[in-house]
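Re: the 383-residue chain
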Amino acid sequence: MRIVDSTGDLEALTAELAHAPYIALDTEFMRDQTYWPKLCLIQVAAAGIEAIIDPMAEGLDLSTFHALLTDTKIVKVLHAARQDIEIFFHQAGVIPDPLFDSQVAAMVCGFGEAASYETLARKLAHVEIDKSARFTDWSRRPLSGRQLEYALADVTHLRTIYEALSKDLARSHRTSWVEEEIAALRDPNLYRLEPKDAWKRLKARTTSKKFLAILAAVAAWREREAQTRDVPRNRVLKDEAILEIAAHPPEDAAALEHIRAVPRGFGSSRQGKGLLDAIELGKNSPPPEGIEPERPRRKRDPSQSAIDLLKTLLRLRAEEARVAPRLIANADDIERLAAFEDEGVVALHGWREDVFGKDARALREGKLAIALKKGEAVVVETT
């Protein structure tokens, strides 16, 4: 097994990989006790090349690997790429390009939503993945041979998966469908963790300007604390505490400690003072930017039966097209279609309109119906 733990060895490896049309990539990282993911291993594979890079090795310079990630002549193949990309972006400000995410591709090749690597390896590479090392602490050294073999298997079979999915996409003329979805993964804003935007992660149940202003200020304070101390957000302050504070802002340390999710003694600590300052800032600030405008109140909400009918149509058309329904339309799209609110509905544009959107319109207009035939739901024309 090829283990790369020096800059010289990494330069030699990247020089070999530079001639490959594509490389399979995966990472192992730890994040249980930290805010920032700790990169522990990088696995790479190409034709005739398999290696594990040890980014924790003393003195290892990853700059040649980061340059490889942006080499536009080489497709970077990953499975469920978002977390891996986040690591590369945080570490070096790079996003792999061109990029192929096998989980996204699997959604348009008939493997359902969020197909696992194990599922694709079994169905496309005809191998069973040994998951016995799944809960390894990848930051520990040395790692056993079994653990390293487990890590390397995540790219060994990814090559076979990529080639099979690529052929399927070319045959069905759906490569552009996948590229459209993957383009969203290449957006740097997806990986920027700005404190001022931290409030968007929380599920606010109100659009009160006062509530949102305090929510944004407190969430930003927590994000800065977590980033500076490199600890998980909930180690600083739990989500439910932030929502409670925004709804009923405490005036002092004693009132702060009456909130159930706030630990005893927190109010008089340095962090407690910082939190109270953030609350005060929120009280005197306008609501944050980026609040979605409220939609005009409907005269009448669509009936559940109308929504269910469109969901059935979506499921039928998705099955026929071998595409995961979620990739075509989400719950909000379905509700808006049922309410005849077509503006901004993604399912009414591009390939999604061909697969589902035009029929959704026809169903609303009575030109299509859903019937039962031999115990199966089918779509029939009414004219």
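The mean pLDDT is 94.
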